[in-house]
TrEMBL record:
Entries under InterPro entries matching the protein: 26kDa_periplasmic_antigen (IPR052022), SIMPL/DUF541 (IPR007497), UCP029033 (IPR016907)
Matches recorded under Gene3D superfamilies: Protein of unknown function (DUF541), domain 1
The protein's name in its UniProt record: SIMPL domain-containing protein
Pfam families attached to this UniProt entry: SIMPL
Organism the protein comes from: Sphingomonas sediminicola
Length: 250
């Protein structure tokens, strides 16, 4: 009887030992697999591809802001109307079409002068402000007229605030997007291949890709990956896009 108990105990201990060895082996295999997976996960390279185009704006928006101040509305309004006619005459003699010229904004501001105690003193001051806008595709003509804008002052136009300013816009961006995105992706791939050659490995498949948004800025300005300018004061502009791509390394 005692012999049978000893034999059963030996069998049980042997089974426990085999089970423990199996757990140890499978745990090592699992840990080694995770380690290998993590190493493979980090065998990537992140590269950026850039594409740029020099373009010329094809739309100009020119706003002229002016005003007049007085104590009675009628004469103030008449003065502003006279300035509006002067602005329109300036645009017309510069060669622009009537349909390219529009009234953009008008406002009236009342200000009551007061003494130290806050009591009204004298009549109200009335200020009528107005804006006329030119919108045209003739960029060359705009540049020529803008150089002569001092004529507005000689014609009695009381420029206020930003006075007279032109914004140039490139409107054909969508036509450039497919070609520029393809070029940026190709440049990113070339950068990845160069990095791989220098590292003694090969480039695998693309893991992730992020297309940056398009920016349009002055052609002679600084490069800016996160700029969203629509062009601004210069008709000579640069369109730029940057893509970011992660590649596997073999």
């Amino acid at each position: 009887m005692i012999q049978k108990l000893q034999d059963s105990r030996a069998v049980l201990l042997g089974a426990v030992g085999i089970f423990a060895l199996g757990l140890t082996t499978s745990g090592y295999a699992l840990g080694d697999g995770l380690r290998r997976y993590k190493l493979a996960e980090h065998r990537t390279v992140t590269v950026r591809g850039v594409s740029e185009r020099n373009v010329t704006a094809d739309l100009a928006t020119w706003s002229v802001n002016f005003s007049h101040q007085g104590t009675e509305l009628a004469p103030v309004q008449q003065a502003v109307d006279q300035q509006a006619r002067a602005v329109r005459a300036f645009f017309l003699r510069s060669g622009f079409k009537p349909q390219e010229i529009t009234d953009y904004d008008v406002s009236l501001n009342r200000e009551q002068p007061t003494d130290r105690e806050g009591e009204p003193v004298g009549p109200q001051k009335l200020t009528v402000s107005r804006s006329i806008q030119l919108r045209t595709n003739d960029i060359t003509k705009v540049r020529g007229a803008y150089a002569r804008q001092a004529e507005l002052l000689r014609d009695g136009v009381e420029l206020v605030g930003s006075g007279s300013n032109v914004s140039f816009t490139f409107t054909k961006l969508n036509a450039l997007k497919p070609e520029m995105i393809a070029e940026a992706n190709q440049n990113a791939r070339r950068s990845a291949e160069q990095f791989a050659r220098d590292s003694g490995v090969s480039v695998g498949k693309m893991k992730t890709a992020s297309q940056g948004y398009f920016s349009v800025g002055a052609r002679d300005g600084e490069d800016c990956d996160d700029c969203g300018s629509s062009g601004g004061s210069s008709p000579f502009q640069k369109v730029r896009v940057v893509t970011t791509i992660d590649y596997d390394l073999g």
